[in-house]
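Field guide to reading this record: the first block holds the primary sequence, the second block holds the structure written as C-alpha cells, and the final block holds curator observations. Each block starts with its own label. This record concerns Siderophore-interacting protein, catalogued under organism Galactobacter valiniphilus.

BLOCK 1 — SEQUENCE
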Amino acid sequence: MSQSITLAAGTAAAHADTLAFRGVVRRVIELGPGLRRLVLGGPDLEHFGVPEATMDLRFKVIVPAEGSTVESIGRVLTPLFPEAPMSSGGDPGWYKMWLASPVSERGVMRTYTVRALREEGGERLLDVDLVLHGVGPDGSLGEGCGPAAAWAASAAVGDVLHLLGPNRALTAVGYGGIDYRPGAASHLLLAGDETAAPALCSVLDALPRSARGVALIEVPDAGQVQPVSAPDGVSVSWLVRSPGQGVGSLLLPAVRAEAAAWVADSEGCTAGAPAARGAEPEDVDVDEVTLWEAPVDNASDDYAWIAGEAGVIKEIRRHLVRNLGVDRTRIAFMGYWRQGRAGH
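BLOCK 2 — STRUCTURE
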C-alpha cells in the first residue's frame, strides 16, 4: 500500500478530515447467493484510508433514491471531493452539507465496512461486500430491499458509487470510525451475522499471530463462507442457516455455548468457579434506538466484538453482561441492522 500522497494546497484533501470519493466499479464478484463484492478504484481512493489496519472501518455510501441520480449526488458532494477548492478552516462539515440538500438530489446514505483496502496494478482498490437483503435469485426486488441493496444488485463495471470516509492524510491513529479497539487483549470472542462478516473477516486477517479465542459467523448460505487467514489460536466457525431458519437462530445459541468457556478462560477467573452474575443492562428499544456500544478503554487481556441484527445483539448483550458478568468495557456491541427495517 502506498505510504505517501501529494496534497494540493487549497483543496479539500489538504483541509477536510472527511472527504467524498467517486469509487469506480472495477469488478463485481458474486461471493454467494445474496452477497456481492464490489471492487472500487479510481483516483479519489488514493486519499481514502487510515494510518493503521482498517479492521472494522466504517464509511458511508450514498446511492440514488426518490428521484436522485448519480449525477445529482455528485453535485451535492462536489465541495468535499479531494480536488475541490477549500481554505484552512473552510470545511463545511460533511453531514450538515449533505443534509442541507433535498433527498431528491442528495440520495440516501448507508453505512458499510471495509473488507479490504490494497494496492493492485498501481491503483488503490477498496473491496466492499454488500448483503442483498430483499433481492431475489433472479434479481427481483422484494420486501425488505433497501436502496443500497437495490443499487448493488444492478451495479456493473464502470458505475460510480459515491462514498464518504476518512482522509488518510489527515486521519490519526485512533480514528473513531474503527470500533474494534481491543487494547492489548489477545483473548477474543468475535461473533456476527452476514452483515458483520466483512468486518469480521477483515479483523481476522489482521489479527496478530499470538491472538487466541473463537469467531462465530452466521450466514444464510454455504456459498457465503469465505476463506480467512486467522491465527492458529483463533477457532473460526461458520454457521450456515437452513431454509426457514431466522437470523440469529444459530448465532445466539452458539455464542451462549462458547461464551461460558471463553469466560472460564478469562483473566481473573478461577478455574471451575461459576460465572459471576452481572447487573441487568439498561433496556434499549432497538426499533427506535441504534444499539451501539464500542468502548475504547479495555485494559484486560479479554475482548469481545459482537455485531449484526440488533434484536439478536441485544439478547447476546444481556447474556454476556447479566448472565456471565462480563465487564462492559471489554465488549463492543453493534446493531448493524434491524429486521423489517430497510433503512436501518
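BLOCK 3 — OBSERVATIONS
The chain has two domains: 10-166, 187-337.
Confidence is low (pLDDT under 50) at residues 270-275.
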